[in-house]
Amino acid sequence: MESFVYDALPVRVVFGSGAARTELAGEVERLGASAVLVIASDRDAERVRALTAPFADRVAGTFSAVREHVPVATAEAARAAAAGADAVVCIGGGSTVGAAKAVALTTRLPILAVPTTYAGSEVTPVWGTSQDGVKTTGTDPVVLPRTVVYDPELTASLPLALARASALNAMAHCVEAFWAPRRNPVSSAVAEEGVRALADGLRDGDPADLLLGAYLAGTAFAAAGSGLHHKLAHVLGGLGMPHAATHAVLLPHVLAFNAPGSPDAAARMARALRTDDAVAGLRSVADAAGVPHGLRELGLREDQLDEVAGRTEPVVPADNPVPVGGGALRRLVQAAWSGEAL
């Protein structure tokens, strides 16, 4: 076996049905927080009030102007709302966690995250903001939540289409981890188990399997880093494309592109999907989830494809399993837009 480095990130994970109701107040106490900023969308207002009621005396303020891809103006407003706070509790999906990370990036406040989708961002040190059609991302340990409370009761009520897209978004983290720059035997093992849990959860409709898979996916991605899939998705996010749905549409196309150059990763994916062909197996999972075949169905225009390819190609890792030069990436983008096979 080749030598490797694996960075185990220091996140406390509390997992269980009803955990948000029974464990959240104790976890706030464990952080030693006495002035908490609660970040959550207005859509979750009733549920958030119920979950935070046991420590209402510690809530110093709330921020609800959550926006996808965290526009810079949203980040600045959230930071202003954090004045006087000594911790952040975020309850919601990836955009809510993203707003909390924007606060932590400049204030260094600890985050306690309660995810309500399968985004996986809650266990990564990756932050992102957007402005003027460009999404900027970075990595900083200070934005990694100190504690994550996973409660399948919170994701069980997700609308079916959103749950499926969010789960495919999580699976993208697993697939990416097989060939990302810092891949290693540990992250690959975690990624394979994440694919298995997510595929089983999508097939059986089990929110506990899906949430476990999302946790494993985020953990694998945090260790292995970002590759072709996420480089493309970040450019598309800057153009205003919907986050989870974009990942879900892109994933089968990126796997089909990279699989020939990474047969071991393809074999592990196939095993986790309980099939003989990873590409066909993933397409079957996506089809069963009702995922569109092409980005044009999400609103991307054909006249934007050159820009997408041109902005993505320079930032794709040099060791991507299949070279992206010579028009190869442009062909991938065209296929992902049209929904046709490469």
TrEMBL record:
The keyword Oxidoreductase applies. Residues 10-152 form the Alcohol dehydrogenase iron-type/glycerol dehydrogenase GldA domain. GO terms for molecular function: alcohol dehydrogenase (NAD+) activity; maleylacetate reductase activity; metal ion binding. Residues 165-311 form the Fe-containing alcohol dehydrogenase-like C-terminal domain. InterPro entries: ADH_Fe/GldA, ADH_Fe_C, Alcohol_dehydrogenase_Fe, MAR. Pfam families: ADH_Fe_C, Fe-ADH. Keywords: NAD, Oxidoreductase. Belongs to the iron-containing alcohol dehydrogenase family. This is Maleylacetate reductase.
